[in-house]
Amino acid sequence: MHPLTLAVITFVVMLTGCSDQDKAADSKRDHIWKSQTQSIEKARSAEEEIRKAFSRRDREADQQSR
């Protein structure tokens, strides 16, 4: 896994952590699973946007150097 992806996933998971003490264990687990899944999807989306930005920057730099 790309280090940037891992860093983004870790950051997003830390931000979306939850503590639902009054729910049943199964409900809590499902909620956490959903939250983590959403966090991973957000991290992947963010990584894709970063890759696109770097790609655009590299293309522009290449065109300017010609």
Describe what you observe in this structure.
By secondary structure, the protein is mainly α. The protein has one domain (3-65). The protein is 82% helix and 0% strand. It has two helices and no strands. The longest helix has 41 residues, at 25-65. The protein is rod-shaped, with a radius of gyration of 18 Å. It starts with a helix and ends with a helix.
Short synopsis of the structure:
The protein is mostly helical and 66 residues long.
Report the order of strands and helices. HH
The portion of residues forming beta strands comes to under 5%
The beta-strand count equals: 0
Rg for CA atoms? 18 Å
Share in helix = over 70%
Low-confidence stretches: none
**Mean pLDDT value:** 81
Helical region count? 2
Largest sheet: none
The global form is: rod-shaped
**What would you call the structural class?**
mainly alpha
Number of domains: 1
Task: State the separation between the terminal residues, measured CA to CA.
Answer: 34 Å
